[in-house]
Amino acid sequence: MHIAITGNIGAGKTTLAAQLATYYGWDVLYEAVEGNPYLADFYDDMPRWAFNLQVYFLNSRFDQVRKIREIRKAHRHVNNYTHAVIQDRTIYEDAAIFARNLRESGSMTERDYETYQTLFENMKSLVRPPDLMIYLRADLPKLRAQIRKRGRLFEQSISDEYLNSLNRLYDEFSAAYREGPLLVLDVNELDYAGRPDDFAEVVRQIDERLVALAGKGN
Ligand SMILES: Nc1ncnc2c1ncn2[C@@H]1O[C@H](COP(=O)(O)OP(=O)(O)OP(=O)(O)O)[C@@H](O)[C@H]1O
């Protein structure tokens, strides 16, 4: 089974992915930030590095798709619901949210965007959607607080406008998402890292979805 966590910068995807992996004993695939050769430059000069970064992310996300396929294959002998791989952000978000936002804000040229979209559509035809998508929805103050707390230097210059635009596209994306089951968690008041009851509530909601999926025989 493949579970994906989606959400804006600082929404808490990585933390939740790690907690779920420990709790259920599942595999997890993180979005690697260390070693990304474009990210810091991108935040410094988006028009210059937008296309480079998007191609980099598309490739690394596609590589994850391949790994997920391998993990699923390795566990095919066990019940589909006793093993899962959790993915921290999906290929869909790169295209529908980040690249689109760069085009709309003028940081990516029309021809670069079209080249990118063609590449994405080709890759998408080979991608199987997750069995469950979990969308962590957070408003600006929560995102800001988490970005500050995490303290990555190059992320401190991210503007409110950038985060708000991404949030608008995230909401549109989740409202239009028809690829499979979607669980929306409002994380503004939720503190699953600090409060065991909050984490238990998240687990309860996920379990509910897993039971429904198992009932459908997916
Ligand atoms: N397609 C993309 N285009 C531009 N920036 C991206 C893209 N995908 C990821 N990023 C950036 O890469 C970094 C990824 O960081 P990280 O994996 O910690 O995730 P995050 O979005 O901060 O999530 P969270 O705090 O929810 O774990 C962030 O700065 C994020 O905005």
UniProtKB/TrEMBL annotation:
Domain (Deoxynucleoside kinase) ranges: 3-208
Key words of the record: Kinase, Transferase
Protein name: Deoxyadenosine/deoxycytidine kinase
GO molecular function list: kinase activity
CDD domains given in the database record: dNK
InterPro entries named in the record: DCK/DGK (IPR002624), Deoxyribonucleoside_kinase (IPR050566), DNK_dom (IPR031314), P-loop_NTPase (IPR027417)
SUPFAM superfamilies: P-loop containing nucleoside triphosphate hydrolases
A Pfam family recorded for this sequence: dNK
